[in-house]
Design goal:
Shape: globular
Number of domains: 2
Distance between the termini: 36 Å
Strand content: under 5%
Oligomer: single chain
Order of helices and strands: HHHHHHH
Number of helices: 7
Largest sheet: none
């Protein structure tokens, strides 16, 4: 019986922490994002997404500087969004070139491809920056491990490990971790 009350206390403390964090900082974060973006609706969406990520934290009560933390998280969301738009733009450009050569692609195919790209961007969002960058440089820019190693100032074997970890992460995300066992 005691275990349940401890778990309940932890849950209650977590809810209080999240409620206080939201009520104390949501307006500030929305205003900060609105100034950066010039669009209240996009700012509201990103502020919402930032707090959704806070909900996934194991110990939100350990956040010492909430505004700095939220600004960093929102900044990462901005970067992720810009990266997703860049991927979509590259894909649409490739489609335009192929459309010119072979006729207009099916709108459903475009929609399915964009959804796949968004799913890939979501999978990559939670990875360490160096691993994600190495993977994108390899897959999107076609760089070799040696070229990526020079850019990242690491050994080619480190790049190989980064890309391998990304591939394992994506596989586990798609098929579950038990698929590798």
């Amino acid at each position: 019986m005691h275990e349940f009350s401890v778990a309940g206390d932890d849950l209650h403390r977590r809810q209080q922490t999240l409620t206080a964090l939201y009520s104390d900082h949501h307006s500030w974060l929305h205003g900060w994002l609105r100034k950066k973006l010039g669009c209240s609706q996009r700012a509201a969406d990103l502020a919402h997404d930032a707090f959704i990520r806070v909900l996934t934290l194991a110990e939100p009560h350990n956040i010492k500087e909430p505004r700095a933390f939220l600004a960093t998280m929102a900044g990462r969301l901005l970067i992720d969004g810009a990266r997703r738009r860049r991927i979509e733009a590259a894909y649409l450009e490739a489609l335009a070139i192929s459309a010119h050569d072979a006729g207009m692609p099916d709108p459903e195919a475009i929609h399915v491809a964009l959804q796949a790209l968004e799913r890939i961007a979501e999978m990559l969002a939670g990875l360490p920056a160096k691993s994600r960058e190495a993977f994108l440089l390899s897959r999107l820019d076609g760089l070799t491990y040696s070229e990526i190693a020079i850019r990242q100032n690491v050994h080619a074997s480190t790049v190989k490990n980064h890309i391998a970890s990304v591939l394992v992460h994506c596989y586990k995300t798609l098929h579950g971790s038990e698929a590798l066992a």
